[in-house]
Amino acid sequence: MSVRPDPAAFNVSLEARCAQLERQLKRERQIRLEAESIAERGLREAYLTNQRFELLCNVTNAANQSVDPLDTLRYAIAEICAVNDWAFANVLLRKGHGGDARLEGCGLWHARHPDQMFAFIDLSSRLIAWPCAIAPGRLLIHPAAVWTRDIQASGDQGRSGLARQCNLRASISVPVMLGQDLFAVMEFFTQSAVEPDPQQLEVLTQIGTQIGRVFRRTANEKLLIENALRDPLTQLPNRAQFENRLEAIFQRNTGAASLRTSLIYIDLDGFKLVNDALGHQAGDRLLVEMAGRLRQVADAYATTPYPGAPESVLIARIGGDEFIILVEGEQHWEDAADIAKDIHSILRPSFVIDRHEARCAASIGIAHDDGSYTVAADLMRDADVAMYDAKSRGPGRTVTFDLGMREKAVSRLKLEAELRTAVQLDEFRLHYQPIIDIGSGKIVGFEALLRWQRGDSLVYPSEFLQVAEDSGLMNVLGAWVLREAATVAAGWRRQCADLPPFYMSINVAPCQFLQPNFVDQVRDIIAATNVDPRVLVIELTENAAITNREHTRVVLEALRAMGIRLSLDDFGTGYSSFTHLQTLPFDNIKIDRSFVTDGQSNVSWDIIDAMLGIARALNIGVIAEGIETHSQLDRLAAVGCTFGQGFLYDKAITSQVALEKLCATAGYATPNPVSPFSS
Amino acid sequence: MKGVIFNLLEEVVVDHHGDSVWDALLTSAESSGVYTSLGSYPDAELYALVEAASQLTGTPVRQLLHWFGIHALPKLAERYPSFFESAPDARSFILSVNTIIHPEVRKLYSGASCPHFHFTETANTLILGYRSQRKLCDLAHGFVEGVAAYYNETIVFAQPTCMHDGAPGCQLQLTWPQ
Prior knowledge:
The complex is a heterodimer of chains A (about 675) and B (about 180). Chain A is of the alpha/beta class and about 675 residues long. Chain A has 3 domains: about 65-230, GAF domain (Beta-Lactamase, 2-Layer Sandwich); about 240-400, Reverse transcriptase/Diguanylate cyclase domain (Alpha-Beta Plaits, 2-Layer Sandwich), CATH 3.30.70.270; about 415-665, Alpha-Beta Barrel (TIM Barrel), CATH 3.20.20.450. Helices cover about 50% and strands about 20% of the residues of chain A. In chain A, the strands form 4 sheets. Chain A has an 8-stranded mixed barrel, surrounded by 4 helices. In chain A, strands 3-2-1-6-5-4 form a 6-stranded antiparallel β-sheet. Chain A has a 5-stranded mixed β-sheet with strand order 8-9-7-12-13, sandwiched between helices. The longest helix of chain B has 19 residues, at about 60-80. The mean pLDDT of chain B is about 90. Helix content of chain B is about 55%, strand content about 10%. In chain B, strand 1 (about 120) and strand 2 form a beta hairpin. Chain B has helices at about 5-15, 20-30, 45-55, 60-80, 80-85, 90-110, 135-150; strands spanning about 120, 125-130, 155-160, 170-175. In chain B, helix 1 packs across helix 4 and helix 4 crosses helix 7 (about 135-150). Classes of the chains: A alpha/beta (about 675), B alpha+beta (about 180). The interface of A and B includes residues 32, 40, 43, 44 and 85 of A.
């Protein structure tokens, strides 16, 4: 069977053929129209995408170059309005935090015809929007772009009435944000009801993010600049800000008395010990507290000579525990002195950190500019010099700079340099002062004392220890003393096998004792020198012992476990706390020479008596220092003091002489009458 | 000139005079007749077609353009209904030419040279200021009448000035009788 169609069936009339062709033509026309319509939709899409991409690019470029987010916003709202032919745009800035968070108009807006919608512009630029269900307040709760088709019907923040008057219909509110931080809201208004367009919203949201970056960047820059001029811990101005201000004062260089300045240089005494003992966090808290007190004093004296002028008093933190106060004005001389006084009294109350009571005194140096200074740094240097002078006189002192101090300071610097050289050239020596059994007059031990062989002269520690401590040489020197004393003690034992029992008493500075590895250092020295640890006595001042009582207890127990004995030095001059003696494992107390040499005072002897009583009660030994006369010796013997040292017996002597004296069994002059306790 | 104008002309001529007349016009104007809304064609081709129609019918060119505008308007409404839907009356539709219609045209055909009308509004009148090298004020006039018919409104048309009379611009004054 054939499938070929019957040709007769196609044998149609001319009319039918025409009608068919017309239908075909119509179809073709429809197809063309359909194709054109599809192509037009595509062209429109492409145009819009391109336009939005360009808009985003333009705003992003502007944001990248911007230093002011408001400039970027100004540019962005104008661009967005121009591209979309929107009538009005307004910027609301986010203000306040937590329950106080709100959006506020800031006078930044863009309008196609400002005159035709002035009432709406005016209200919008002063608008305050609190969190609520409708835009723009809604963005505080849910920060996402909102498209309101017709605000005339929405009840928008009381603006719908004006919107009607100004013929504004749709509103689009766009958050300016980065991450979770909302910085501002851009709102746009159209004069026709525009349907929400998700793609458009996406682009606007992206623009909001780009501008959010400018806000974040600007905030970070501001913070950086603040940190560059401010000490982040205490929030006080830092050295840079202080120096800028002082430099500016010197730049004015008018010489007018009313513009002269004083500098108050403040160094906290005892801060370093707290820092070492309780850790940096505790130290920081103490610093913040003390800085607050200092600021309180400074603020009390600060005045503003004319509106907009810098305050007459500026306080800055310029180092770890160093502060400086600049005092400007006619009264600078008197004000500086008063400020110093107030600082001493405001620092007096103790401050409790982690249940430890901490105290800071201040060493204060003042330098006045009497018009003779031409360089700011010189004034600062002199205040620093005065502060050092104050420090050398003990905590809590104020010293005003004079020219003699400059020479002293120069020689001090020289001394520091020489000390460093001396350490390298091994110019330090130990001399040994005998410690005597008062009852028998026999040598029981020696106190190793540091001397500096500076050329032909012998320099005593009182002349260089403070400088050594200030310049960080103390731990080096201290370790050297320990090693040398141990070496000498071990050497004596080797040289003279039948040497009578003796001990070697070694002073340890507070900073040396507070080193975390102090016990290890001692252990290593014992191993290296092969000294019998039972020969060693470590002398510690009360201040060093109580700075960190827990550390002290652990260290002292570790030392005792090695066989080393412990003396509490300068007893009576510090806190002289009974509790310290009771809780810390000392073997001896050393009565400070000031009590012994003050032989005329009955009070001193009563105190010595009391100290001996305490020692007896706690079953610890007592050594009196600074015995210079027979009457002192007699009296000490009479009250029952067991051991003593002083010029009456011997000054500190060289190792060789000391060994000879020890070997000679003959004792020193025996006091008379003999103490009832020593018989 | 945008291809859509040629398409509209073809539709209006075919509607009123049939296929053969359009074919005759093309022959007379020596035009290929291949026009799509996606393309742009020389203005001269449109003028040649209008000129041919004028000769064929004995109707002046300006009158023909006016007639074309009136009848093209419903065809535009058919093709682009959204423009008409968003304008509630003739006045707002005419006012949307600058702000909505021509911007939309530019979205489809970058570089399209659409005329800009300068509107002067009073309570019941609207003056359209028109300036163009093409001098198609008659076409605009026809479109306005088409719009009035579409919205079923009465608009009284007057043209105080005309570029054809040597004026620098045309003023098309529309009045809604109260």
